[in-house]
Design brief:
Blueprint: H1 3-30, H2 37-64
Amino acid sequence: MDRDEFVFRVVTVTLAAILVSVVVVLLVGLFDPIVDNKAIFAIIGPAFQTVVGVFVGVLSTMVRRGK
């Protein structure tokens, strides 16, 4: 495994873990009767979009490089 592939795998695993964490927090918040659902989407939405954008950017960079 070369250095680029190792970095790509580390970034992919890290971003996937962040996405799973965000989804779990969203689900916990949705089913908590104390928390207002509109507030959850207002807080988590931009963070989720940012992480997904980074994920797409990393994948597109690797595709362009021919990996």
